[in-house]
Design a protein that fits this description.
Keywords: DNA-binding, Transcription, Transcription regulation. The protein is α+β, with helices and mostly antiparallel strands. It is about 25% helix and about 35% strand.
Length: about 250
């Protein structure tokens, strides 16, 4: 029975198999366009599409002026998410087996809540929120992106308006909001995946369209009202999420 898959998919599958079994090891050059055209009797567009599939899956990466090479897909470590870690600025404990140093840069602005964020915060659309964007580094290499939103009405006029400024900077959501009498009692996380945007890919060091893991996290106060929500983004091929689950009763 003939293979009913499109030619570009068969080329991508063949190359993936060669990478998986080690025939094309990490760092090896992917056959050139002309080589793939001859081997598969395919057009420029077909082989280019096959290589794009490899890149999007994290199997290959382009090097300007040199060609396309097999990417290293071995996980760098795990991000342990637990009751003790969920509220830190990084929202996880890094487990890499070495002395990795995590650092980050952040910038905040006051803006209007997009519809999906307003829904997550339980506020009217276009209400003013504090939006903080983070870039996390592990030993100065890209690790995680995050965007946080908080209702401005909750913190306006206090010392904790901006998460990374003032006397309560870098205390996490619970620590900061406790300073103004707001008790944060729980957080909910939804984990999913999607293709990386061009901006995310440039920052995380991957290819646009490559799979990233996204954690949607929302903090709630004692009245079960959302007080903060954020999106955390990591490369799915390089970092695994680990969850500590404590059993009670």
């Amino acid at each position: 029975m003939s293979d009913s898959k499109p030619v570009y998919q068969r080329i991508a599958d063949d190359l993936r198999h060669r990478i998986d079994v080690g025939t094309l090891p990490v760092g090896a050059r992917i056959p050139s366009r002309s080589e793939l055209k001859r081997a598969y009797a395919a057009s420029d567009q077909t082989v280019d599409r096959a290589v794009r599939v490899l890149k999007a899956a994290g199997y290959a990466e382009g090097q300007f002026g040199r060609g396309v090479f097999v990417a290293d897909r071995a996980p760098l470590g795990s991000l342990l998410r637990s009751t003790g870690a969920v509220d830190s600025p990084f929202a996880a404990q890094l487990t890499t087996g070495d002395d990795t140093v995590v650092s980050w840069e952040a910038s905040s602005s006051i803006t209007q809540a997009p519809p999906h964020i307003a829904g997550r915060l339980g506020v009217p659309e276009a209400v003013r929120v504090v939006c903080t964007r983070y870039e996390y580094l592990a030993n100065r290499q890209p690790l995680q992106l995050a965007v946080s939103w908080e209702p401005l009405a909750l913190t306006e006029g206090t010392d904790v308006v901006y998460p990374e400024r003032g006397p309560y900077a870098k205390r996490g959501v619970r620590g900061r909001l406790a300073a103004i009498g707001v008790q944060v009692v729980r957080a909910v996380e939804l984990v999913g995946s999607r293709p990386a945007t061009t901006t995310e890919a440039e920052t995380l060091g991957c290819t646009a369209g490559q799979c990233v893991t996204v954690v949607e996290r929302t903090h709630f106060d004692a009245d079960d009202q959302p007080v903060e929500t954020s999106d955390l983004v990591v490369r799915a091929d390089r970092w695994r999420l680990a969850y500590g689950i404590a059993f009670t009763g």
